[in-house]
Amino acid sequence: MAQTSKIVLIGFMGSGKSTIAASLAPKLGFDLCEMDTRIVEASGLPSIPAIFQEHGEAYFRALESQVAKSLTNIRHVVISTGGGVITNSENMGYLKHEGLVIYLKATFATVCERIGDISTRPLFQDSSRALSLFTERTPIYESFADVTIETDGVSTDALTRQIVSTLENLR
């Protein structure tokens, strides 16, 4: 397998980060780290919507930065990030440290199809705002990506195989 010992998946909400991370980690023999789960645990609240409702986005972003920093030196892990982690370049510095960043790229139409229940997505409550975020963030994802993988219309198994193959080719 590739010499990279940390894989960081970035992309917009609904791009497939959690699904691909759960499929990829066991194939690589790596641990799985869901940043959103760690953020919720650090908050002491039951969910991300509860964090946004009780403390706002700035508090969520501060917790996100703490979690990103805690992952700087972690090894043998696939990290599924939140869609907005890229809005703070320090976060990406922590995550990129000895890691490979893979941008899971999906169209906005695909993202909308995949998200379904928007009640768990505080920043997707307003579709025009969500589209604006998508448009703003796309070039940022591209700037941090070591590898970009198009996810539209591709199965989880095929994407996982593509990433494993990419890692082998980078070795």
Please explain how this structure is put together.
Helix content is 54%, strand content 13%. With 171 residues, it is an alpha/beta fold. It has a single domain (6-163), classed as P-loop containing nucleotide triphosphate hydrolases (Rossmann fold), CATH 3.40.50.300. A five-stranded parallel sheet has the order 2-3-1-4-5, sandwiched between helices. α2 (35-43) packs across α4 (57-70), α3 crosses α4 (57-70) and α4 runs parallel beside α5 (89-96). The longest helix has 18 residues, at 127-144. The chain is globular and about 45 Å long. The N and C termini lie close together (7 Å).
Features:
single chain; about 170 residues; alpha/beta; Rossmann fold; five-stranded parallel beta sheet; 8 helices; 5 strands; about 15% strand; globular
CATH topology, which one? Rossmann fold
The CATH H-level superfamily is P-loop containing nucleotide triphosphate hydrolases
Mean pLDDT: 91
How far from one another are the termini?
7 Å
Q: Total number of helical segments?
A: 8
- Anisotropy-based shape: globular
Helicity range: 40-55%
Number of strands: 5
Largest sheet: 5 strands, parallel
Structural class per helix/strand content? alpha/beta
Could you name the CATH class? Alpha Beta
Helix/strand layout:
Elements: E1 6-10, H1 17-28, E2 31-34, H2 35-43, H3 48-55, H4 57-70, E3 77-80, H5 89-96, E4 100-105, H6 108-115, H7 127-144, E5 147-150, H8 156-170
Parallel strand pairs: 1-3, 1-4, 2-3, 4-5
Short description:
The chain has 171 residues and is α/β, with parallel strands linked by helices. Helices cover 54% and strands 13% of the residues.
